Amino acid sequence: MTAQITIGHDATGKPVEFDIEELLATRLLVQGNSGSGKSHLLRRLLEESAAMVQQVVIDPEGDFVTLAEPFGHVVIDGAAYSPHEIEALARRIREHRASVVLALEGLEVEQQIRCAAQFLGALFDAPRQHWYPALVVVDEAQMFAPAVAGEMAEDTRRLTLSAMTNLMCRGRKRGLAGIVATQRLAKLAKNVAAEASNFLMGRTFLDIDMIRAADLLGMERRQAERIRELERGHFLALGPAISRLPVAVKIGPVQSGHAARSEGLMPMPEAAAGDMEALLMNELSVEAAKAAPPPPPPPAPRPEQLADSIARAEERQAPPLAAATPPPSEIAAQVEAIIAALAAEEGSAFQSASAQFQTFLLRCRQQRLIGPLPDMPAFRRRFAVAGAGLDDLDSAVRARIMELAHGVEDDLLAPFLVIARSAHAGETTVDEDAIARAYGTSSPGRIRRLLEHFEKKGVIVVREEFGGGRTVMVPGMEQVAQS
Pfam families, per this entry (predicted)? Predict the structure, then answer.
């Protein structure tokens, strides 16, 4: 089977061919202002190569859904699926070599970007046994690989840039050949555009875009005006899959598309002014009432707002304060019990300090504890004490250990207290698993660096033995722990 398709004809009527096998290895960039014929070009390329290679189209405007009937593409409505379902669909597409159109017109712009990014990421991360060759066409690529952040959220920008960069920079080894089309080269991220070796440049008017297009085509700056003069459906082509020298090509006809679409003028309606006004105004309120969408659901509250809301609701339900309010000593004991229970829970040390603190406040409110509660720093120190088991020690010993821990950072206090307790108990080994749990890590390397940090601060002394053992001492404690 030949890998050549005819994309159009040059000025002499000679066919201009496209080598699809070469395109899979070298990728393609298409640029042209709105109305220059980019979508027509992409449709011609897709139609001519539909029987040769798997095709995946990212379609933000719903222009390519008409490929479904004549060429068998499966249309995926991005608005109808959850993010996990979109990723699962992408994995199945690679496994079964299905040609698809991901239609995104039913989503808001930022949702389109996130949906496409997750879809492309799942295509890229498919198992090695499913790395079949596929053309991946991204229309309006300046949306998905913007040169500047714009108004989208920072996490969305990082997600979509990563997906597009992987497609264009590393996709070839996974069988993915990126084809990106954009209205403005200046708005497209340079590291995405730079990975294409084939170019089809259509009509553009802004100097900055003309100069970049001329540079990519290897033309002199004074020749850039030629790009401004291109007619609709005419492109300058260059690349190993097309031609080694720039060639002007008129794109050939297509089979699919919107049959009812009108590109020129149409006769104006002949209705009289009064009749037209009646058509516009009659029963307008009835139609508006039918078309009015239901009010959107309120946004989900943030965790801290939810906790405050629960607290206020419980306070409204609580009986008025009376003489039966427990004394401060009893409240303090209940607070200590909550902290001890939280510290004893499996995996609690692996949570962030803010998540631990929010859980603590929520439990205090559930028990209707009224009175001043520990702030974040005080809670972290009490949590570390409870996690290390210092509450079981004599108060004098506990005070001495806390005195030695005075210079230790709050986020390192828990593992130091574990070491100090082991030293006080005279244990021959330091339980590194206990240190890891207190530190919230499973990395031996982090534990080793932690001990080195403690030694530099002077709160412990580490002595290496010839036999490979290690002695850890806590200055100020009489006992010695070995590990």
Answer: DUF87
For residue 344, the tally of other CB atoms under 10 A from its CB is: 11
Question: Domain range spanning residue 246?
Answer: 4-251
Average of per-residue pLDDT across 119-135: 93
454-457, long-range: CB < 8 A, 24+ apart: 454/408, 454/412, 454/416, 454/419, 457/407, 457/408
Please give the pLDDT value at position 174: 92
In this structure, which amino acid lies at residue 362? L
Report which of 65, 15, 391 is spatially closest to residue 402, judged by C-alpha positions: 391
How many of the other CB atoms lie within 10 Å of CB of 319?
7
Rounded to 5 degrees, φ, ψ at 435 are -65, -40
Question: How many structural domains is the chain composed of?
Answer: 1
Which comes out higher in pLDDT, residue 136 or 439? 136
> Has residue 255 got a pLDDT over 80?
yes
Q: Is 200 helix (H, G, I), strand (E, B) or coil?
A: strand
Query: Token pair for residue 153?
Result: 């959220």
95 in a domain, yes or no? yes
**Encoding tokens for residue 164?**
């597009």
Going by the DSSP 8-state scheme, the letter that residue 174 receives in this structure is G
Q: Answer whether residue 336 is part of any domain.
A: no
For the chain, how many helices (H) and strands (E)?
Answer: 20, 14
204 is a domain residue: yes
Percent residues over pLDDT 70 in the chain:
81
Structure tokens at 128: 């090695």
**433 within some domain:** no
DSSP character for 275? H
Instruction: Tell me which residue of 379, 381, 375 sits closest to 405, measured CA to CA.
Output: 381
| 86 contacts 118 by C-beta, under 8 angstroms | yes
How many angstroms from the chain centroid is the CA of residue 77?
Answer: 20
Structure confidence by residue, pLDDT tens digits, 166-208: 998 888 889 999 999 988 877 888 888 878 888 888 888 676 7
Tokens 């085509």 appear where?
217
Q: Mind giving me the DSSP string for 92-160?
A: HHHHHT--EEEE-TTS-HHHHHHHHHHHHHHHHTS-GGG---EEEEESSHHHHSBSS-TTS-HHHHHHH
Low-confidence winner among 23-27, 113-117, 414-418, 423-427 (lowest mean pLDDT): 423-427
CA-based nearest residue to 473, from 409, 427, 413: 427
* Maximum pairwise Cα distance, the chain: 105
